[in-house]
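tokens incoming
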């Protein structure tokens, strides 16, 4: 049983080494691959589709590039923004629930805060800004 645990630990270490490798040698090479994905995705880009299109195993591997910082992070952040913009465009169609779901998972909200004030006989309702989407 101890040998099985040792093998499992080695496998995890090996996987971590693989996931820490830089897949693209330069940010420019990564940008070229990102541009190629967007040219061929038929106007329906997704984060998972982007990750797979760039040769990553999943979206988490792609998002790990942001942790590397620098120009790699900027390329991925910009690509995520392009995916987000595509979902935002989908809000103009008649079927928006999927786009709303995706955007909420990207940090968008659609709530409004209300402030109630009054002396017991009169209430004033004040909306605190516009929805954050």
């Amino acid at each position: 049983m101890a040998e099985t645990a040792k093998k499992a630990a080695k496998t995890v270490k090996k996987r971590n080494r693989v996931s820490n490798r830089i897949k693209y040698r330069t940010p420019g090479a990564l940008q070229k691959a990102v541009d190629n994905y967007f040219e061929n995705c038929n106007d329906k880009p997704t984060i998972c589709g982007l990750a797979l299109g760039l040769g990553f195993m999943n979206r988490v591997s792609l998002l790990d590039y942001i942790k590397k910082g620098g120009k790699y992070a900027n390329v991925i952040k910009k690509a995520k923004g392009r995916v987000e913009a595509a979902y935002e465009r989908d809000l103009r169609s008649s079927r928006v629930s999927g786009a709303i779901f995706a955007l909420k998972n990207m940090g968008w909200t659609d709530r409004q805060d209300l402030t109630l004030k009054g002396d017991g006989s009169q209430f004033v309702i004040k909306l605190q800004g516009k929805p954050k989407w």
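note: Helices lie at 2-20, 27-40, 47-53, 59-68, 70-90, 97-105.
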